[in-house]
């Protein structure tokens, strides 16, 4: 199950079911759970903990030091859940400080040449297409779709079931259930994503009405935020309103 050219530190904890390909390097402090596949020329390093059933394709570098000038060589962490796929040449950096961690949830697809910066938190069942770049401290919700070559500025949040069109970039928070295009611009709700996620027609209608109330009216959305809470009481409307109330950078 381990190719003879692979280099594995004797202190690394590698489950016996893990398949390790040619010229892979697994450093000390790495923990790999059952049924994972480590492809050719993959480098797993740092205090990295990997769950069950993850796939690392050729040339991925996972858990390397953060690209952060504040980093001082501390033993920082990366935590990866279950069932993720990391395609060719994906890079995921560990955290900057020992009391924080970079987190990749479960069942995500990170396509070729994706970069996840230090201290990022990626949720579950999201797709990051080829060439997506996440700056440090980015938070990605569940079931998010970032199309090819999208750019997300550091400290930005992307809400659950949001989508970014190919080549777009954001330096402001992208609310749940919405679609981003160009630079910091929203262009409506992720209607197809909402259907695929199983939201009913009534739930989608409430979100559409709330979107128009917040972003298509004549008053700034902050002025109508509290009033909207009394009118829109559904679960998904609450997720959107809570996200808006918690923004630090502003909204696309």
Any overview of this molecule?
- By secondary structure, the protein is an alpha/beta fold.
- Helix content is 17%, strand content 27%.
- It is built from four helices and 27 strands.
- The chain has a ten-stranded mixed sheet. A nine-stranded parallel sheet has the order 1-4-7-10-13-16-19-22-25, with no helix packed on it.
- Strand 26 (178-181) and strand 27 form a beta hairpin.
- Helix 2 runs antiparallel to helix 3 and helix 3 packs antiparallel against helix 4 (235-245).
- The radius of gyration is 20 Å and the shape is elongated.
- The mean pLDDT is 96.
Brief digest:
It is built from four helices and 27 strands. With 252 residues, the chain is of the alpha/beta class.
Keywords for this entry:
single chain, 252 residues, alpha/beta, ten-stranded mixed sheet, nine-stranded parallel sheet, 4 helices, 27 strands, elongated
What is the mean pLDDT? 96
Tell me what portion of residues adopts beta-strand conformation.
25-35%
- Using the CA coordinates, give the radius of gyration: 20 Å
Please report the total strand number as a whole number: 27
Percent helix range: 10-25%
Instruction: Tell me the overall shape.
Output: elongated
Number of helices: 4
- Amino- and carboxy-terminal Cα gap: 48 Å
Going across the biggest sheet, name each strand in turn. Answer: 3-6-9-12-15-18-21-24-26-27
Largest sheet: 10 strands, mixed
Estimated structural class? alpha/beta
Uncertain runs: none
């Amino acid at each position: 199950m381990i190719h003879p050219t692979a280099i594995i530190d004797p202190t690394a904890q590698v489950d016996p079911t893990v398949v390790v390909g040619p010229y892979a390097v697994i450093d000390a402090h790495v923990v790999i759970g059952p049924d994972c596949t480590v492809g050719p020329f993959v480098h797993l390093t740092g205090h990295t903990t990997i769950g069950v059933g993850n796939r690392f394709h050729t040339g991925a570098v996972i858990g390397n030091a953060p690209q952060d000038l504040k980093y001082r060589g501390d033993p920082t962490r990366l935590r990866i859940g279950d069932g993720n796929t990391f395609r060719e040449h994906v890079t995921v950096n560990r955290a900057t400080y020992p009391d924080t961690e970079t987190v990749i949830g479960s069942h995500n697809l990170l396509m070729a040449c994706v970069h996840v910066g230090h201290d990022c938190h990626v949720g579950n069942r999201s797709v990051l297409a080829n060439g997506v770049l996440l700056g440090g401290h980015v938070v990605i919700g569940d079931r998010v779709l970032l199309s090819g070559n999208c750019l997300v500025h550091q400290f930005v949040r992307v809400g659950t079931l949001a989508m970014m069109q190919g080549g777009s970039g954001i330096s402001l928070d992208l609310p749940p259930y919405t679609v981003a295009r160009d630079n910091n611009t929203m262009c409506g709700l992720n209607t197809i994503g909402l259907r695929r996620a199983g939201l009913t027609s009534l739930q989608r209608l409430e979100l559409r009405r709330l979107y128009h109330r917040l972003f298509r009216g004549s008053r700034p959305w902050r002025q109508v935020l509290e009033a909207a809470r009394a009118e829109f009481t559904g679960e998904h409307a609450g997720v959107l309103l809570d996200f808006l109330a918690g923004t630090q950078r502003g909204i696309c």
